[in-house]
Specification:
Strand 1 and strand 2 form a beta hairpin. This protein is of the alpha+beta class and 128 residues long. The chain has a four-stranded antiparallel beta sheet, covered by helices on one side. The protein contains three helices and four strands, in the order ββαββαα.
Length: 128
């Protein structure tokens, strides 16, 4: 049972894992996997289950069936085998580092910034 929504864990292939992120694209999985493996975590990636589809309504006489919806994009669930891992604590606790030696910031984790600028505080005033 999770403490809250920020600390989820599941059993994946018989191994208890802390969930890092769900419904990730393959590019996002590559980014997260390389970052976490560089920091010494054992990463597990599994395909996310397909979304639930509601049953189709019965057709009345004379109606044609609507075209089937497009298939959902392939998404993945990323987890680490260390169950005490929490993304929020790792980022704000400055526990994760990039390959260049900088501390991972939230903007770098979300891939908003290409380079982690750990000298600029995350709580800095951003308005005029």
């Amino acid at each position: 049972m999770a403490i809250n929504q920020n600390h989820l864990f599941e059993e994946i292939d018989g191994v208890r894992c802390a969930i890092v992120e769900k419904n990730c694209s393959s590019e996002r999985v590559t980014f997260i996997r390389s970052l976490l493996e560089f920091n010494g975590y054992n990463v597990v990636v599994i395909p996310s289950p397909p979304p639930k589809v509601s049953p189709a309504k019965p057709l009345a006489e004379g109606e044609t069936a609507p075209p089937p919806p497009p298939p959902p994009p392939a998404t993945f669930t990323v987890a680490v085998t260390q169950t005490e891992f929490n993304v929020i604590n790792a980022i704000y606790g400055r526990l994760l580092h990039t390959k260049t030696g900088h501390v991972v910031t939230m903007k770098y984790w979300k891939q908003i910034d290409q380079v982690s600028d750990d000298y600029k505080p995350y709580f800095a005033k951003t308005w005029r």
